[in-house]
C-alpha cells in the first residue's frame, strides 16, 4: 500500500548551496509525523517543497502515489495538503471569522454570479458554520469579531491552524506551531492536535520544542545539513547517537 | 424599514436635483455620475492590492467599442453600451496575461505602458478609430417615453436620469460582489497572498477576475460618456484623467465602498462648482492642488475616515444594550 505522503530523493539547490540533499521519508495516514533537526537543517525548505512554494531541483513529492512536486501552492492545497506558516502569517486587517472564512475557500468555492444574485445562501451558511466550528475547535469562539492583528501571539498561532483546519485538509503541514507559546498553551495545543489526528487528519510538523515533539509524534524524521539522519519513534530518536551528535556536537572529537 | 426610507429619500433627491441646477451644472452632474462608476470600478481592482494606470484607457476602450458598434452595425445604443463593457472586459482579459506576470509597482508601470499602446493604436489607425481627431457624430441615445416622463436626450437632465439608473445598477452589482465570498477572497489576495494560496485560492485567477470585472464596468462608464458627448478622441482618455481618478480614490480613501465615490463627489463639486462660483477661474488648478495636499496631510485615511468617526460612534452606541444582556 502506498503511503499518504512520500518524499523521494528530494533535493533543493540554491545556487551552489544544497539546502536539502536527497531526502527520503514517508508519512503514513492518520499519524503525527515530526520533522526535526538543528537550525539550518533544511526543514522549512522541505516544507516549502512539499507545499508547492518551491519547485524541487530534483526528486519528487508523492501524494497517494501521485507526483505533486512543482505544482503551484493552491493546486497542492486542492489535493488536500494545507500548510501553516512559520511566523503568524494571517490576514491581520480582517476579523478572526473572516480569516477562517478564507480557509473555507476550497470546500465552499465562491461563485461570482451566484454571489451577485444571492443564489449562494446555502454555500455561505455552510462556509459560515464550518468557519465557526473551526474557530471553536481552537478555542477562538469568543474572539470571532476581533481583528486578527489584535490577537495575542498564542491566539494568532491557533488562528493560523484554524484557517488550515477550516479547509478540510487530509494532511496539515505545521511549521513551528508552538513558537511563542507558554508551556500551558503548548500543552493545550498538543491536546488539540491529538484530537485533529483522531479526526483522521494526518499531521506533519516541524518543531524545536523537543518535549512537544516527543510527546506528540508517532514517527520522527531527523535531518541535519540537508541530509537524512535518522528515523523512528520518539524513544529511538531520543537515544540515537547520530541525533545526539547533531544537536550537541560529536563527543569523540573532544578527547 | 429605516433603510427603505433612506433609499426613497435618496431617489427623490436625485430626481429633484437636476431641476435646481443651472444648465452647465447639469452637465457636470452627468459627468459626475459617469465618473462615480469609473472610480467605483477602480476600487474593485484595488481590492486585490493592484493599482493600475490604464483604467481610464480601458474606459476609452468601452467608449470606442460602443461608438463603433452602434455606428457600423446599427446596434441599438443601450445594447452598444453593454457591448462596450464586454469589449473592455475582453481586452482586459487579454492584457491580464502579460500584466499579471508583474505585481505592485511593476504592474502599475506595465498597465500604464499597455494603456499608452492602446492610445497609440487609436491615433495610428484612422480607420476605424479616426486617428487623433477621434470619432465624431456618435449616435445619441434614441429618445423614448415611459408614459409619465419623456426622455429627451439632448437635455442633460434626461441623460442624467438614464445614467443614474445604469450606474445605480452597476454599483449594486459591484457592492454585491464586494460583500460576497468573492470579495472576501479579493481582500485575502491583497493582504496575504501566500496564505490565501495555501488555502487553495488561485491568485492569478482572482487577480484577473478583479481586473476583468473592474474593466467591464469602466467600459460601461466610457460608453455612457461617448453617447452623451457624441465625440471622443484619444486625448479624452489620457493619463491626466487617470490622475483625477487616482486623486478621487486617494482623497476619498479606498478602505470602504463609498470612500472613492465620496472623493469623486466632493472633489468634483469643489473643482467645478465652488471654485467656479467664487470666480477663481485662473487659479482653480492651484487651489485644487493645494486642497489635495492639505487633505492628504491632515486626512491620510481619506474623507471616509470622517464618515467612519460618526458611524462608529453610532455602532458603539448600538452595541451597548447588547452587551448589557
Report what the structure shows.
The complex is a heterodimer of chains A (255) and B (325). Chain A has 255 residues and is α/β, with parallel strands linked by helices. Chain A folds into two domains: 143 residues, Rossmann fold (3-Layer(aba) Sandwich), CATH 3.40.50; 78 residues, no CATH class. Chain A contains ten helices and ten strands. In chain A, strand 1 and strand 2 form a beta hairpin. In chain A, helix 3 crosses helix 5. The mean pLDDT of chain A is 86. Chain B folds into two domains: 211 residues, no CATH class; 88 residues, no CATH class. Chain B has 14 helices and two strands; from the N terminus they run H-H-H-H-H-H-E-E-H-H-H-H-H-H-H-H. A two-stranded antiparallel ribbon of chain B has the order 1-2. In chain B, helix 2 runs antiparallel to helix 10, helix 3 packs across helix 10 and helix 4 runs antiparallel to helix 10. The longest helix of chain B is centred in the middle third of the chain and has 27 residues. The two termini of chain B are 25 Å apart.
State the main characteristics:
heterodimer; A: 255 residues; alpha/beta; Rossmann fold; 2 domains; six-stranded mixed sheet; four-stranded antiparallel sheet; 10 strands; globular; B: 325 residues; mainly alpha; two-stranded antiparallel ribbon; 75% helix; disordered C terminus
Count of helix runs of chain A: 10
Ends distance of chain B: 25 Å
Secondary-structure element series of chain A: EEEHEEHEHHHHEHEHEEHH
How many domain regions of chain B? 2
Lateral arrangement of strands in the main beta sheet of chain A: 6-7-8-3-9-10
Question: What is the CATH architecture descriptor of the largest domain in chain A?
Answer: 3-Layer(aba) Sandwich
Tell me which oligomeric state these chains represent: heterodimer
Question: Within the CATH hierarchy, at the fold level, what is the topology of the largest domain in chain A?
Answer: Rossmann fold
Q: Which class of the largest domain in chain A in CATH terms?
A: Alpha Beta
| Number of spatially distinct domains of chain A | 2
Largest interface: A-B, 38 and 25 residues
Q: Please indicate the percent range of residues of chain B in DSSP E strands (runs of 2 or more).
A: under 5%
Instruction: Please report the total strand number of chain B as a whole number.
Output: 2
Please, how many helices of chain B?
Answer: 14
**Radius of gyration of chain A, in angstroms, nearest whole number:** 19 Å
Biggest pleated-sheet summary of chain B: 2 strands, antiparallel
Radius of gyration of chain B: 20 Å
The CATH homologous superfamily of the largest domain in chain A is termed P-loop containing nucleotide triphosphate hydrolases
> Helix share of residues of chain B?
over 70%
Amino acid at each position: 500500500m502506498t503511503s499518504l505522503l512520500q518524499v523521494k530523493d528530494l533535493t533543493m539547490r540554491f545556487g551552489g548551496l544544497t539546502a536539502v540533499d536527497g531526502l527520503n521519508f514517508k508519512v503514513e495516514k492518520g499519524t503525527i509525523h515530526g520533522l526535526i533537526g538543528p537550525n539550518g537543517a533544511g526543514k522549512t525548505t522541505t516544507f516549502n517543497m512539499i507545499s508547492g512554494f518551491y519547485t524541487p531541483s530534483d526528486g519528487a513529492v508523492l501524494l497517494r502515489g501521485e507526483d505533486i512536486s512543482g505544482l503551484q501552492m493552491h493546486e497542492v492545497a486542492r489535493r488536500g495538503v494545507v500548510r501553516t506558516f512559520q511566523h503568524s502569517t494571517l490576514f491581520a486587517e480582517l476579523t478572526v471569522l473572516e480569516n477562517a472564512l478564507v480557509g473555507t475557500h476550497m470546500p465552499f468555492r465562491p461563485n461570482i454570479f451566484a454571489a451577485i444574485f444571492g443564489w449562494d445562501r446555502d454555500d455561505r451558511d455552510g462556509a459560515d458554520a464550518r468557519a465557526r466550528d473551526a474557530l471553536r475547535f481552537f478555542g477562538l469562539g469568543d474572539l470571532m469579531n476581533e481583528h486578527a492583528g489584535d490577537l495575542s501571539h498564542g491566539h494568532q498561532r491557533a488562528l493560523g491552524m484554524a484557517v488550515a483546519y477550516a479547509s478540510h485538509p487530509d494532511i496539515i503541514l505545521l511549521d513551528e506551531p508552538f513558537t511563542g507559546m507558554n508551556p500551558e498553551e503548548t500543552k493545550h495545543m498538543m491536546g488539540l492536535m491529538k484530537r485533529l489526528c483522531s479526526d483522521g487528519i494526518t499531521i506533519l510538523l516541524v518543531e524545536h520544542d523537543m518535549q512537544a515533539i516527543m510527546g506528540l509524534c508517532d514517527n520522527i524524521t531527523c535531518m541535519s545539513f540537508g541530509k537524512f539522519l535518522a528515523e523512528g519513534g520518539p524513544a529511538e530518536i531520543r537515544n540515537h547517537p547520530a541525533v545526539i551528535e547533531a544537536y550537541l556536537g560529536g563527543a569523540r572529537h573532544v578527547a | 424599514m429605516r433603510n427603505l426610507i433612506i433609499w426613497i429619500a435618496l431617489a427623490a433627491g436625485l430626481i429633484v436635483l437636476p431641476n435646481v441646477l443651472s444648465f452647465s451644472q447639469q452637465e457636470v452632474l452627468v459627468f459626475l455620475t459617469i465618473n462615480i462608476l469609473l472610480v467605483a470600478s477602480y476600487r474593485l481592482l484595488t481590492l486585490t492590492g493592484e493599482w493600475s494606470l490604464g483604467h481610464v484607457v480601458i474606459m476609452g476602450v468601452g467608449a470606442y467599442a460602443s461608438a463603433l458598434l452602434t455606428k457600423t452595425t446599427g446596434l441599438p445604443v443601450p445594447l452598444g453600451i453593454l457591448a462596450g463593457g464586454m469589449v473592455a472586459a475582453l481586452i482586459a482579459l487579454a492584457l491580464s496575461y502579460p500584466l499579471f506576470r508583474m505585481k505592485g509597482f511593476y504592474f502599475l508601470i506595465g498597465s500604464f505602458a499597455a494603456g499608452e499602446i492602446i492610445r497609440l493604436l487609436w491615433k495610428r489607425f484612422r480607420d476605424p478609430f479616426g486617428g487623433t481627431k477621434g470619432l465624431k457624430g456618435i449616435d445619441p441615445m434614441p429618445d423614448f417615453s415611459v408614459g409619465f416622463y419623456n426622455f429627451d436626450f439632448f437635455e442633460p437632465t434626461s441623460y442624467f436620469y438614464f445614467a443614474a439608473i445604469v450606474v445605480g445598477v452597476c454599483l449594486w452589482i459591484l457592492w454585491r460582489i464586494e460583500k460576497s465570498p468573492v470579495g472576501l477572497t479579493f481582500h485575502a489576495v491583497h493582504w496575504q497572498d501566500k496564505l490565501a494560496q495555501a488555502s487553495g485560492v488561485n491568485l492569478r485567477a482572482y487577480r484577473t477576475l478583479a481586473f476583468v470585472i473592474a474593466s467591464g464596468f469602466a467600459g460601461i462608464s466610457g460608453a455612457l460618456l461617448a453617447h452623451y458627448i457624441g465625440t471622443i478622441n484619444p486625448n479624452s482618455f489620457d493619463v491626466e484623467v487617470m490622475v483625477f481618478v487616482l486623486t478621487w480614490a486617494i482623497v476619498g480613501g479606498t478602505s470602504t465602498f463609498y470612500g472613492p465615490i465620496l472623493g469623486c463627489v466632493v472633489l468634483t463639486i469643489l473643482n467645478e462648482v465652488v471654485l467656479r462660483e467664487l470666480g477663481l477661474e485662473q487659479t482653480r488648478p492651484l487651489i485644487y492642488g493645494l486642497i489635495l495636499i492639505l487633505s492628504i496631510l491632515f486626512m491620510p485615511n481619506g474623507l471616509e475616515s470622517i464618515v467612519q468617526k460618526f458611524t462608529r460612534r453610532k455602532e458603539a452606541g448600538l452595541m451597548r444594550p447588547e452587551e448589557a444582556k
